[in-house]
Amino acid sequence: MSRLVVVANRVPDPREGGATAGGLAVAMKDALAKRDSLWFGWSGKTAEETGTEAAQVRHGSTTYATIDLGHDDYRHYYQGFSNAALWPVLHYRLGIARFDRRDYGGYTRTNAAFAAALAPLLRPDDTIWIHDFHLFLMAAELRRLGCRQRIGFFLHVPFPPRSVFNGLPHAAQLLEGLASMDAIGVQTEDDAENLRGALIAGGMGEAAMRVGAFAIGIDAAGFASLAARRVGSKDVVRLRDSLAGRSLAIGVDRLDYTKGLPQRIAGFGAMLERFPRHRGKITFLQVAPVSRGDVAQYRTLRRELDEGVGRINGQMAEPDWAPIRYITRAVARPTIAGFMRVARIGLVTPLRDGMNLVAKEFVAAQDPVDPGVLVLSRFAGAAVELDGALVVNPLDPDDIAEALDVAMDMPADERLDRWSRMWATVRANTAAAWCRRFLSALEGHEAVAEAGSSLEETPKRRRAKRAEA
Q: Which residues fall in a compositionally biased region of kind Basic residues (predicted)?
């Protein structure tokens, strides 16, 4: 089996074996454990200039190779083009994107620097898997350096309609960079259709045939076990005792304008106003660690949330009950798993999201005897798979309010039926299955479109089975 080379903007902490790196490291865990591997990317540190030689650390079967970013490249590649331009455009927010030619210069320069630092580390038979929007151009740079290995790319965020993407300066060059890939993966078939359309319109029809939808999953059994173990932990017991018998609704998100947090807060407030019988019977816990706090838009978002939470608590609270609890610091993943286990409602309402693994983690965390209800945005990629959720339009606070009312009153048998359907999907379409499907397409064992569409269990397939029966 060839060595797997994973390339991403950030590299997990090798001292932790990738355990603290977040969603991508968790998703890649199975693939990395089963073969010799190299994980390459940015160290998270800045220096006077971007590094030219990678520092390497070996942990188990994986070598972690990193370079530092120069201060200018950090400002233009990372803060500028990646986060101020690409991030909003890919999330359909063309109107708030900021464009600067110096930022694009930093983006192209850094993609080239990544390729130049990685190329000397490659073996002829390596399989290279590049991740996410920071590195649209890297495969093309590797090809210019003479690299002929199989190169795949996976976009973890949405891909918008062609009319939106073409509003991005240098959109054509980014698509040409993607055309250098042997396999291109996105989260949903809608994303795949959008990307294929953009490539075809740009005269890259052959590359469009290499695009497939590969819905990413979680370690379902592992997260379920973690939640069950943590339900008796000190932090979870403290939370449950503090609820005093009230139901818990929970939201877990980065503090980001794509997550629909102000609309979610407004929806919860609308539920308390429109359905006053729920007052004093439910507490909403929103965990939203601050991210990109040095960006003006994120500071504005935090002020908006602070004001929204304060307004609802000020108007609705009683001496022994505050409707909303709001945490802007990080909470450990095991603790979150335990919180999800005791929650009656999971609120996952992004304005746009590639997949949203929090939705799947909420399903996995539930008590199979007495599961909670998932309220899910129709604009999250997970809505395609999780047909047992109450699906809402996150832009409509009244829609959220009505779904919360339904969730609060939902009888146990309906909750169990909805959860069972979702759990079957989450348990089948795991992170390990996602890796297998994509690598099978990348390494030439299966056509990309066929591999991407072959989810092991989907709502559509379950309905077909029931119809046949």
A: 460-469
